Amino acid sequence: MSARRKVSGLHASESALQNSPEKIISAWVSDQRDDPKIARILDVLSQIGVPVQVVNRARLDSLVEGRNHQGVVLELIMPKELSEGELRSSLDRASKNALYLVLDHIQDPHNFGACLRTADAAGVTGVILTKDQSVGLTPVVAKVASGAAETVPIYRVTNLARTLDLMKESGVWIVGAAGEASSSAYQVDLDMPVALVIGAEGKGMRRLTRDRCDLLVKLPMLGQVESLNLSVATGILLYEINRQRGIF
Amino acid sequence: MSARRKVSGLHASESALQNSPEKIISAWVSDQRDDPKIARILDVLSQIGVPVQVVNRARLDSLVEGRNHQGVVLELIMPKELSEGELRSSLDRASKNALYLVLDHIQDPHNFGACLRTADAAGVTGVILTKDQSVGLTPVVAKVASGAAETVPIYRVTNLARTLDLMKESGVWIVGAAGEASSSAYQVDLDMPVALVIGAEGKGMRRLTRDRCDLLVKLPMLGQVESLNLSVATGILLYEINRQRGIF
Predict the structure, then answer these.
(1) Closest residue to A232, CB basis, from B219, B235, B242
(2) Can you give B183-244 as a three-state secondary structure string?
(3) How many alpha carbons fall within 13 Å on the CB side of residue A155?
(4) Which chain B positions have a beta carbon within 8 Å of A248's beta carbon?
(5) Burial degree of B47 (CB within 10 A; 0-12, 13-18, 19+)
(6) DSSP class of residue A2?
């Protein structure tokens, strides 16, 4: 049996209905909501044939363990994480605009979710994570990702250094984000197949990961704090790469 | 008496020691920590003359209400929020590179904290918020901001529409972020004094705020989710404005 997860709230539910209706297997709606947004959600659920249970607030609260549900909870089959073999196939197809996001031991589910949402928006080819010591696809991650956990290909690998070597062999440049880099992302040419590597919160990349990088880049910091939030830095870098490629 | 707040954890404490040592009035350290990071924090506290209490874990836990403290808690005098009068003075001094960030009814403390951290990194002139219906400078905000709550000028105004009019009179362009804008931020010239306006999570700008904008811009979305996390979008836009100005 596939793993399952719950999505709650209007925004996340609308997103799931639009992006992965085929994964929705159950729905619960509050018996106290009577408004256009819920009506629209009920319409779509009916169209795609998902059974809806109208329940009271206490039942909804218990389904999501106190998270804010805004009167609607959906149950989805969990997205499947892809293997190293599938990453090889992706690399075989990689174009000059290939853009992978590598998260080296990311820990915080909010950061991971926000990175997936940003990765989707930036049209990345895939997100790569290590099997151990990285956060999983938990319900918190999926909620923060606002649907992107279902749309972005996520590859989970055992040995990141080996994977980066494989990517290099396929012509992908490994670009690491590092505060101590000598060049800013605005000073280097990123118009090539790229895997952007982001280190763990507070720790940065591991040495073995950093050693694999063809290039290190930093973001200019004009104030007094020394670093950006991980998902904010990821967003700025992914969008700058796309800008340099003339995609926008 | 000024309001006070607590900062906990290694990263936030180091940041407070570096950026606002003059605001630290008390410190508590675990009686079970004996490592270089804590030793360095104790050194600096001793240099700046802040009294340190060595306490047990239960006492530390109670000081921060269960948040993760990593063995160190500092108490700071809260940053002062600035008034509309002080914003007028700031506008009188505004250069052609003036860059204000306007948060229209922001609700989530994590987003607000991440926006402050990003605003500091992007060297903004000031952050502007409304007095009502926006999140305050709570301990969560200050912790996520990683020191930026003490370094970025924060103006709290009663009537945002009036403030935006005042800014326009001072030659500042009001640029609103809106998913439905016809131009992307990469297609317009943002090399002028700018107030970047970001709407509330999920709701966007209020109509009265939007009506004051000289320009609406969007970020290109290449995937299936329809929006970015608020603080990620703010970071991408602030960094793009600085890039266009040739500051980097």
Answers:
(1) B235
(2) EECCCCCCCCCEEEEECECCCECCHHHHHCCCEEEECCCCCCCCCCCHHHHHHHHHHHHHHH
(3) 26
(4) 184, 186-187, 220
(5) exposed
(6) -
* Residue among A165, A162, A152, A158 nearest A100 (CA): A152
Q: Cα-flanking dihedrals φ and ψ of residue B223, to 5°? A: -110, -145
Pick from B9-18, B72-81, B90-99, B193-202 the range whose average pLDDT is largest.
B193-202
Kindly state whether A235 is in contact with chain B, defined as any CB-CB distance less than 8 angstroms: yes
User: Considering only CB atoms, which chain B residues are within 8 Å of A114?
Assistant: 229, 232
Report the distance separating Cα A3 and Cα A56, nearest Å: 26
Contact status, residue A98 vs residue A127, Cβ threshold 8 Å: no
- Least Cα separation, residue A228 to chain B (angstroms): 6
**B218 contacts B177 by C-beta, under 8 angstroms:** yes
* CA geometry: angle A188, A191, A196, nearest 5 deg: 75
Give the pLDDT mean for B83-87: 91
Cβ distance B248 to A186 less than 8 Å, yes or no, reads yes
- Summarize pLDDT for B188-203 with one digit per residue, the tens: 999 999 999 999 988 8
What tokens were used for B86? 């002080």
* Cα→Cα distances B191→A76, A227, B240, Å: 46, 25, 10
Instruction: Spell out the domains of chain B, with CATH numbers in brackets.
Output: 4-77 (3.30.1330.30), 84-244 (3.40.1280.10)
Residues of B in contact with A144 (CB under 8 A): 229
> Token pair for residue A13?
């539910």
Say what the pLDDT of residue B244 is.
96
B187–chain A Cβ distance below 8 A for any pair: yes
